[in-house]
Amino acid sequence: MILPPFLLHLPHSVEEALMIAGDCGGDFDFLAGGTDLLPNYKNRLNARSHVIGLSRISELADPFHRLSDGGVAIGAMARLKEIEGDDGARRSLPGLIEAISQIATPLVRQSATLGGNLLLETRCYYFNQGYDWRASKGFCMKAEGDVCLVVPQKEICYAIYAGDSAPVLMTLGASYRLIGFDGTRDVPAADFYQPDGIRKNELRKGEILTEVRLPPEALVARSGYMKLRLRDSFDFPDMGVAASLSLDGDRISDLRIAVTAVSMTPQLFTEVTTPLQGRVIDRALIDVVAAEIQRRSQPVRNVMFPPQYRKRMVGVYTRRLLTRLAGLS
Known about the structure:
Elements: E1 7-9, H1 14-23, E2 28-31, H2 37-42, E3 50-53, E4 65-66, E5 72-75, H3 80-85, H4 87-92, H5 94-100, H6 106-111, H7 114-118, H8 131-137, H9 165-171, E6 175-180, E7 183-188, H10 189-192, E8 208-214, E9 222-228, E10 239-248, E11 251-260, E12 267-268, H11 270-273, H12 283-296, H13 307-325
Parallel strand pairs: 1-3, 2-3
Antiparallel strand pairs: 4-5, 5-8, 6-7, 6-8, 9-10, 10-11, 11-12
Helix pairs in contact: 12-13
């Protein structure tokens, strides 16, 4: 399939990009690596008349640099392959590197960006199809229609968030720096995503995700990511588990667990992990935590694997990941 016609703009600064966006009357998309947006355009999924490419804005492309508070920042336009190969990122953020290394294929990661992965369009097998397929089934509310075909009603879209890097960044306490018409603001990753497949997140129209910021404690935490998918490359997750663990001896000083691709947002289970501070981490405790995360996960039926299987794998992957991070394997 070929792309629909649109006018491509290539600004050299964030200010210029915002100025162009303001002139487009809302009929635009920002373009990062294009590995998600352009395939959707080929399927005629909510294509716009104007596309504002961010590839020439050099200030957004730094893959890893230190902040004055001891934390680090990663530019939103940093290519995934650049982050994956950065020595500082590999030493300090093993969980993020593990997630990035499982995104799509090495060739896709040469083009795809961190910001693009964080802002992925939500996915559903009623949505991610060609126009003729969608027409034969009956259009959904995410494109052309007004009814969700996963859970039939007209209020909430049940397309899932299927990104790999966001759950890791949530467990590490990251925040997203956004610049728009009203200025600059920082939003915690844990508060950014919204439980609606159309609304998706807190990004306002015209805002640009410029960088991801991580606090100093994220650089010393044990972190990891495990991904369930049909094929061992290329595929989006059908479920993924991220965790960040800090220990004081054999006792938990901080534990955070997030699950992706089971709901409209990546889910951070602080209500399960916060009470565990000060507890000795052992296999028995890990079994209890994994069972509770599994119990609270409610996958919806809109990807390849059925909900019951994905729910079971939430517990299995949580147990495996925590066992590895605790050094008990």
